[in-house]
Structure formats: structure tokens, C-alpha cells
Fold these 2 entries.
Entry 1:
Amino acid sequence: MTKILSQWGLGPALAKISHKCTSFKMRNEVTGADPIEGTVTLRGGDVVKADVIVAADGHDSIMRPLVTGEEESVDELPGQRYLSLAFQVPTDALREDEELASLTDPLVWYLWVGDGYIFHGNLVVGEQDFTDIETPKTRKKRGRKGEAGHPLVPGSRHSTALSIEDAQTLGRLFSHIQHKSQLPQFLNAYEEIRQPRVSATQEYEQRQFGMFSAPAGPPMIQRDAMMRAALAYEDWEHMDEDTFKMVWGNELALMGHDAGEQVDDWWTQWRSFFEGKERARQRDSIQIPVLQPASYD
Ligand SMILES: Cc1cc2nc3c(=O)[nH]c(=O)nc-3n(C[C@H](O)[C@H](O)[C@H](O)COP(=O)(O)OP(=O)(O)OC[C@H]3O[C@@H](n4cnc5c(N)ncnc54)[C@H](O)[C@@H]3O)c2cc1C
């Protein structure tokens, strides 16, 4: 995601807010951290101290075990295991091919489903490339957290969205902090707000993946029947309500999520509590000058 953000202008955006931060340490590898002390160790030995450490070091996060207390790698969990292949084809190469030229419609997401695998693709990066993901199921593995906090099934369509929502949630929550003693409560709020959303998305992705890559048999027949019902309509504007809900209901509920709104709702509920506590803290910390006894000499 760092690459995507760089394309979107991460560098200039950081430069713009640099006056609000002590410093940005670019291209520094983190080799360890002490969450109790609030320190991060960089390769080379420097130790950086902070009030909060946000670990966003991706799928192979070295920080995850410090938070979860588990040493296991997300790739070594028992359950289902998938092989996911991702590649990009220059759109021009497709356009030059008579049979493949039809794949260059920017409004279409192409999907091929088979016996235990799914193959899908669409135009990306200003329509210069067509990206494909092929995901045959190879053996059992239980899908669990993805990326640093919540790894998803490879090829999931909501991974990046979840990461951006995480950042938005944290940013908006922290904009309400008035004193650093409130940090633990706001971090708890972050968990409380994000956990249900992340779990629901993980379950949705697992379900979708299971359905689309179903091996030959009853689940595949059921899926094909549903897809045929959906394709019987020219477009979704003419779909009857029941079919629309069956095909797109869950997807729309997932896409309609507004992470900022979730924080606003939470803040509406808790604002007076936090502001009252902060007023009390300020009152208690006011230094009342002690009058010196008058001298009667
Ligand atoms: C081939 C492929 C195709 C994908 N397609 C899609 C898609 O179509 N849609 C979608 O939503 N998602 C897609 N994803 C998933 C998406 O890329 C991730 O969900 C997203 O990048 C996660 O963002 P992140 O910031 O959590 O982690 P990352 O993007 O992995 O960023 C982690 C950053 O931390 C840095 N880092 C790691 N360790 C350390 C360390 N010790 N010290 C310092 N820095 C460190 C890394 O250099 C990196 O810059 C795809 C992923 C892959 C691999």
C-alpha cells in the first residue's frame, strides 16, 4: 500500500504536515519494539520513544506477535491453504489480440469460476494494465488475520479498503484526545469500533472465496443457479428486489460502510464522559497558591 500511497502523493502530503511532527524517519527498518516502554528499535541500534506505536508493517508483520502474544505465522495456521497468483498484462497487448480485446472494457470485472479455483481480472492503473488473480485451493488452512492487523484471503477485494478505514478511524479518534492519559481508552475504542467490521469482512471474503472456488458438487450447482438468476436480467436496475438482495445485498452492506461515521457515533455517545473527566483532571491539577502566614514580627 505504501507504493500506492506514494503514487497518490504520500511524499508531498507528509512534507505538508511535517511542522506538526518531530520528524519522519524514512527508509528505516524496525527490528524490535517494547510496547510496555513505548520504544521502537531501528536497524543500526537507534531507539525511538513514543506515546503510541502504530504497527502497519504489512502481512509479515514483526510487530503482530508483540500485540497478540502469539509466535505463529499467519501462514502456518491449520485449516485451509490457498495458492494465489497475481499478474498484470499491458492493456495494449490485449487490445492487439482479436480474442482478448473484449477484456479491455473498463467497466467490467471479469470472473471465471472452475472446479476449486477462481480467476478474475479487471483494468487497473489508469487502464494501462489488466490484472489477474488465479486462486486454486490447494490444501486446508484456516484463513485468519491479514496484513499487520487483519490478514485477509489472498486476492480479497477489501484488504486495502480495510487498511484505509483503520487509518481513518485512528486519525478521527485521536483528533478528540485532550490528554495523553486518555490514550488507553481511545485505543480500546479503536478495537471496539474496528473489530466487528474487520471480522464481518473477513467472514464475507471467506464465504465469497469458498462460494466462487467451490469444487464440483452441490455448492457449485447452487452458486451457478444464483449466478444464472442474476444474469437473466439485462442489468441490475431491472432486477426484482429479492434477486437483487440475494446477489448484491451483502456486497452493498459491506461497501456502504463509513468508518468516519462509526467514530462520530462513538464520540456522540462518549463525548460528555471524556470532556467531564478532562475538566476534572484539569481542576485537580490546578496549583492553588498556598498563602504564607503573615509575619507579626
Ligand atoms: C499481488 C497482490 C495483489 C493485491 N491486489 C489487491 C486488490 O486488488 N485490492 C485490494 O484491496 N488489495 C489487494 N492486495 C492487498 C493489498 O496490497 C494489501 O491489503 C495492502 O497493501 C495492505 O496495506 P498495509 O499498509 O497494511 O501493508 P503493506 O502495503 O504491506 O505495507 C507495509 C509497509 O511496511 C513496511 N515494513 C514492513 N516491515 C517493516 C519493518 N520491519 N520496518 C520498517 N518498515 C517495514 C513495508 O516496507 C511496507 O512499506 C494485493 C496484494 C498483493 C500482494
Note: The two ends are 76 Å apart (CA to CA).
Entry 2:
Amino acid sequence: MLKKWITAAILGITAAVMLTACGGGNQQGEQTAQPATKIKVATSFNAMKEFVQVVGKDKVDVVTIIPDGTEPHDFELTTKDMKALSNADVFVYSGLGMEPWADQAIQSANNKKLLAVEASKGVKAITNTDEDEIKEHGQYDPHCWLGLNEAQIEVQNIADGLAKADPKNADFYQKNAKDYIAQLKALHDQYAGKFARVQKKHFVTGHAAFAYLCRDFGLTQNSVEDVFADGEPSPKQMAALITYCKKHDVKVIFAEDMVSPKISQTLAAEVGAQVKQINTMESSEGGKTYLNAMKENLEEILQSLQ
Ligand SMILES: [Zn+2]
């Protein structure tokens, strides 16, 4: 009798354990089949996309409006781009005139839930000096993500935006931003001393995208094309660039794929300099991360000044 009871009890327990195990299995299966909803983030260009990804990680789905290989300063918004915004939860753009189409895009999207994040809000903006540029493109130099100090502000603004759009994961976004900001700061600090120790401070790039980087490290840029990559230099401007390179003993001309690379080569040949690539992160830089691309920029500029 007792034996029978024990056998029955064991069978019962086994069945219960199996049921529990199956139940657990089912729950896991359901979780795999229905993952937590990611927030949809539309970004304007490559650097914004990466900042959103490092902050949002697996909790965001990110699309970029300006396709890789398109010069962002020449970009014109299409109906397809507006559709991306009408489906998004968050739109992250850098601002300061980098995306003159942003306001129109936000309005046309007609998306009540869309949260627009202007990542550069609160940065110490650099003012343009050329009158024609100001007339055509506005008061500010937009390239603030290329300054490691300003990039920290952009990442924080993005974290605040994602936290607002998705409050239950706010701590996650803030922690990721904090970790990444620490890396940006470390890279800045690593190079601040190195640049302070070199005598030469002048370098030449494809377009004038590095004013914020220059401010961070006490450097001066000159460029084949202007702040907004508006066209190739005139013969007179080219002659002035040659004089500049000779005067400042410029040994490397930094070139960009999307901005008059041939003119950069001609200039380099003229002054006996090497041509090297520089990363603006306006478009994907061959899959390099922002931190790697930025470190490469700093190391190459530093070496060119030694
Ligand atoms: Zn640019």
C-alpha cells in the first residue's frame, strides 16, 4: 500500500516537474517569437547613426536618411525619406545647418508621436566667417561631431531623447551614454598633451570640416573646399593654398573621397606633400567605428605635424 502511494507520488512529482519544464520552455519560445518592440529611430547621416547605436544598442532600429556615398551638404530630401520619418518614433539630426531640410521633413512627416532630437543643442557653436556662406548656409559651422568635446554633448542629448521616447529603458540609455562619453573624453585627453608638444599647428583637408577638432587641440585648418564643400577652388584660391602649404611646411594633404580628391592630389604634387585619407564620418568610413576613425584622424594629423 505504502509502496503504491510512493510510486504514485513520484509519478505525480515527475509529471509536475515536466509540466513546469514545458511551461518554462513555452515561455521562452514565446519570448523568442515576440521580441520586445524596438524603438524606430531615423537619423540624418552616418555619425548620428553610430551615436544612436552606441546608446540604444539592441533596443533601437536605426535607419539613416542620407545614403552612404552621398555628400550630405548636397543632399535633397525625397518623398521616400519623409516616409521614413512618418514611421519613426525618434528623429535624430545634428543641427547647426547640417540638415537644412530637417524642419520641413519633420512637418511633412505628419507624425504626432515623432520625437525630434537636435543633437547639437547646447554645444558652443563656431560661427562662419565668409559672408556668402552665411547667406547660403546660415550662421554656424555644423561639423560639431568632429570635436570630441562637442560629440560628448551630442551623445548625451541622444540618450536624453531615447530615454524620453522609451522611459522604461531610460537607465540603459543613460548608462551606455556615460560609458561612451568616458571613451570620447579619454581619447581627447590622450591627444591634448601630444598636440600641445608639437610646434607646427597647420594642416590641409578636403573641406573645412575640422574647426571643432582644431579648437579642441589648438590647431588651424585650411582646405581645398569650404565649410559646406561648395565647389572646387579657383586658380587664385589654388595659388593661395600652395603658398599656405609652403609657408607652413605642410607635408600631408588630407583628402576625402567625396570632396575633390583629384584637386587634393594636384595640390600635394605641387608642394611635394603626401596624400592621406581623413574621416569626416559624414558617410560611412569603410565600416570604421567613430572612435577608430577619430583616433586615426588625430594620429595622422599629429604625425603630419612632427
Ligand atoms: Zn561637411
Note: DSSP finds eleven helices and ten strands in the chain.
